[in-house]
TrEMBL record:
Residues 1-27, 162-183 are annotated as: Disordered. It is found in: Nucleus. This is p-loop containing nucleoside triphosphate hydrolase protein. The keyword Signal does not apply. Residues 1-17 have a biased composition (Low complexity). The keyword ATP-binding applies. Residues 207-378 form the Helicase ATP-binding domain. One of its GO terms (cellular component) is nucleus. Signal peptide: none annotated. It comes from Lobosporangium transversale. InterPro entries: Chromo-like_dom_sf, Chromo_MIT1, Helicase_ATP-bd, Helicase_C-like, P-loop_NTPase, SNF2-like_sf, SNF2/RAD54-like_C, SNF2_N.
Amino acid sequence: MASASSTKPETTTTTEISTKDGNIFPQPPNTTRELLVKWKNMSYRKVAWVPSYWVSQVVAPAKMKSFWKKVQGPSEISDVVQPEWTQVEKVLDVVFDADYNGRGDNMDALDHIQSVFVKWRGLDYDQATWDEPDEPDSPHYATFKQAFKEWVAAQKIDIPARAKKGRSGPQPRPSNQAPFEELKEQPAYISGGTLKDYQMDGLNWLRYNHWKNVNSILADEMGLGKTIQMVAFVTTLFHELRAFPCLIVVPNSTLTNWVREFAKWSPDLRVVAYYGPQTSRTVVREYELFHRGTHDLKCHVVVTTYEMIVNPVDSIWFRKNSWECLVVDEGQRLKNENSMLFIKLNELVVENRVLLTGTPLQNNIRELFSLMNFLDPVKFSDVTELEKKYENLDKNAVEELHGLLKPFFLRRTKDEVLKDLPPKSEVIVPVGMSALQKEIYKGILARNHKLLQSITNRGGTASNRKASLHNILMELRKCLNHPYLIEGVEPRYLDTAELVHKSLIEAGGKLELLHNMLPKLKQNGHRVLIFSTMTRLLDILEDYLNGEHYNFVRLDGGTSSADRQARIDKFNAPGSDVFVFLLSTRAGGVGVNLATADTIIIYDVDFNPKADMQALSRAHRIGQKNKVLVLKFMTRNSAEERIVQIGKKKMILDHLIVERMEDDNLDPVDVESILKFGAKALFEEDSSTNEDVKYDDAALDALLDRSKIEHSHNENDNGDTKVSGFGFAKVW
């Protein structure tokens, strides 16, 4: 058994108690404290208050000691047991009454259930338990009945014969295949809302490519609803062609959202999420994925993560069936044809492949051709040869490349298709260093002077030079974000909490500016997303926000899928009082809808400007009702200013980008220029002069003013919006 972290106010009892293993303990004199206990293999519906003396007889002393250290004091059950943990989310298995003679595959069997194996809402599969069915007068009966109805439906799913183990590959289309028919209106079975016109175009484009047996890249700009279009496409495959199952491979951070979108837009499809700890995955395989005793799927869609695909054990299960459609979200993950993900996905037998990415061309030419090789390994068979052919992109080569790629690509931008989306303004905000930051920054450069000099003179191996440069740069970036990120800088002994908080704010130029901004933003009813590349910086911002008593939530790479979605829901809830959402740029920049915020602060820019673009698209997307202000903090005369300059250079390149953008591949020459930038001015600065960037009230009000934010639609002479090189044209 396991104890919940809760104790009950003192009471006195005189009865004996028997434990689940049959042991009976007598009542000791003067027993007054009780503990809330959750019994092993039993649900949270069965938790009970038990005298602490009896618990101590069956729980190891070390465990009891640890428990008492964590307990804060008396509390109620509702403080430690979430109400949703007692609600049925899924029925996994059923035992019927001994005298029931039916097959159990219809709703008539509902009244003959003896016990059910349940996945509880808000808990992983490995916490599923057997329990009694809810009675008709129970407040949970409706959700239990629905869960049983879905279980019954799963028993009747029979995947097409061509999808079962044994197919050798995609089958040729029949010669008498019916002509393609465009969907003029949204089908009734896509029921979660109304698709926008461009989303209907995207759906028809995906259907047309599937009809032609051509694989696709849906490359709409972030925030245009690629997930919804894909859900709609998979749904039409099932309803029009009875074509399934489909496998959808996504980042761990977006899996919950994918499942939710299917439930909203396509409730007729049975969707199984395969992820989580090994114990949970075992339960999913045994009760959710396959019909008992077979490898035949009993679902229409499986949503899983990259990690599951490359896991040597789990990858076996995905090869047990063939797939009508394989969807890879954030398809740029396949930029390396030698990666394990690329190899494992290529081992699957798949009829149709679709990649989703809002940044399809952020990589160098070779990486682009790797994506194309995954889609069409015949036409793009020799990646190295294609890379050489298009190494130098003149006008003719670009046009030729466009022609080669266009059948596979659909790309629309927000400016093209969302006329009603409120405009956004992006502002680079110069920030000065605090006196402490200047001292530390100079110290880092001075301390590494000889190393920098030898690196500049090309001393040592290239790999060592690169590692040394990156180490120095990381120290400088930590200093610029907040000097307390440097070990040994934060003062250990300050007299009062107020002095600690004041010191925290004044130590960093960016935090001091943020401190002056937030009250104005809150007063005017704005809600804020703050992105940083450093999770330790988010720790500092947490301390600051707690000190200011601002209500906030946080999401980073360590946030579980369940907590991630709960925090997003809390922030987006109608009337939410959460003012700030702290996010790590990489973890919070993908697959998150935070359109209820209208202010985005990029606390420190990413080496890859596309990562920052993904971040700001969390708010500037479908559903946004207000003008969006994006503020990118940049410390003046520092390495950070040079990073911004390099990012600008990358962003103005044409959409066939040939420079590497990943921070891992940043050119050592670029790193050198970043380290040197602003150093001369900083060391020559006269301490008697004060040329730092300062923002008074008037300057802050002007910076935060949204009245002049306007749309930036580009229109041609015919009044049409300017379309990308991979736009949409009907060809049927």
